[in-house]
Design a protein that fits this description.
By secondary structure, the protein is of the alpha/beta class. The protein is built from 14 helices and twelve strands. Helix 7 links the parallel strand 5 and strand 6. The chain is globular and about 75 Å long. The structure holds pyridoxal-5'-phosphate. The site of pyridoxal-5'-phosphate has 17 residues, from helix 3 and helix 4.
Length: about 375
């Protein structure tokens, strides 16, 4: 192709997909689990024989992810957790892993248990202390640095470029959970990351109807080959209909993320200094401690995720949540419906999350309706 078009253009068109046989501009869903051989006993469709390791419906979604992240290769998984787990399960007992204290709680909980059984040597770092990562990464010992930015649900921002330099100087690889930033706002590989992980359940699909995950790699490596073998052998893959829905959802990714980021910014600015709040956690606000780094590595917005710290205790936070009428009380994020959640109630007594924190996922509704709802609920 001699045209050089922008990512938004390529993604909206599913990489200019046109079916060579039918002219269809939307790819088919291939549901077959097995693939036939010709009379010479050669596979008719190339290398595929059975769908535990791959399905032709993944091809377009994986190619779109490569285009979005500027990566060498992408793999779909059955969930974000399965994608992340594939990376950790490809490490060896004794490998040293550094990870942030505050991160997606499901992954943190799983990692703590898995590391004990598997014998991984895991070490948390404090993302709010700019020198702590350097203290925890050990040259010649650390194998993997795992980060998440912005960190769910406090939205602390981690400098990907600095983390990549620290990891690489120590001989380690850097993996980034970029679910919240999305490839629209941040491309971790451009800042030196080796592997990018997404819960595709969130913004990538964007419509609350698919559970899926993805990994994108900068270049081939032993770790990546082990991840690929892991997926092929365990079948941690989405169904073909889910993979198809994902390529459909991704076509509007730029519109959805740009709109949600603009609305989240408007909400944060509107509510900043509100007497019923002690603070707002949103990297787009200049008052946020991570704003400088966020402004460097995020382009076109600061995501649709923010948290409100209610001036009060757990009961006051729950009262606020119960008064919301437009925001829907539900977990998850990155869909077109705005959601509100009291994280501490969900995470339980081991949670490091403040009891007065309420998390908002801003969707595609009119921003004035969202602001009015929050105003009346705070009122
Ligand atoms: C939801 C989420 C995950 C887990 O993804 P699933 O698709 O639910 O398994 C991981 N990281 C972040 C930041 C998430 O929001």
């Amino acid at each position: 192709m001699d045209r050089k078009t922008r990512r938004q253009t390529d993604i909206a068109q599913g990489l200019h997909y046109i079916d060579p046989e039918t002219g269809s501009v939307i790819p088919p869903v291939v549901t077959s689990t097995t693939f036939a051989r010709d009379d010479q006993y050669q596979l008719i469709g190339g290398h595929r024989s059975y769908s535990r390791d791959h399905n032709p419906t993944y091809d377009l979604a994986e190619q779109m992810l490569c285009r979005l992240e500027g990566g060498h290769e992408a793999l779909l998984f059955s969930s974000g957790m399965a994608a992340a787990a594939a990376v950790f399960q490809s490490l060896k007992p004794g490998d040293h892993v550094v990870y942030p204290k505050v991160m997606y709680w499901g992954l943190r909980g799983w990692l703590l248990e898995f590391a004990e059984r598997w014998g991984l040597d895991i070490e948390p770092f404090d993302a709010t202390d700019p020198d702590d990562l350097e203290r925890k990464v050990v040259r010649g010992k650390t194998r993997l640095v795992w980060i998440e930015t912005p960190c769910n649900p406090t939205w602390d921002v981690i400098d990907i470029e600095a983390a990549a330099t620290l990891a690489h100087d120590a001989g380690a690889e850097l993996a980034v959970d970029s679910t919240v930033a999305t490839p629209v706002l941040t491309r971790p590989i451009d800042w030196g990351a080796d592997i990018v992980m997404h819960s595709a359940t969130k913004y990538l699909n964007g419509h609350g109807d698919v559970l899926a995950g993805a990994l994108v790699v900068k270049e081939d490596s032993q770790l990546w080959r082990d991840v690929k073998t892991h997926r092929a052998e365990t079948g941690a893959i989405p169904g073909s209909l889910d993979a198809w829905l994902l390529q459909r959802g991704m076509r509007t990714l730029f519109l959805r993320v740009t709109n949600a980021s603009a609305s989240a910014m408007a909400i944060a600015k509107h509510l900043e200094g509100h007497p019923a709040l002690t603070s707002i956690a949103y990297p787009g606000l200049e008052s946020h401690p991570g704003h400088g780094v966020a402004a460097k590595q995020m382009h076109g917005g600061f995501s649709g995720m923010l948290s409100l710290l209610i001036d009060g205790d757990e009961r006051d936070a729950l009262r606020f949540v119960s008064r919301c009428q437009v925001f829907i009380r539900a977990t998850s994020l990155g869909g077109v419906e705005s959601l509100v959640e009291h994280r501490y109630s969900i995470e339980g007594p081991d949670s490091p999350i403040p009891k007065n924190l309420v998390r908002l996922s801003v969707g595609a509704e009119h921003v004035d309706d969202l602001i009015a709802d929050l105003e009346q609920a705070l009122g």
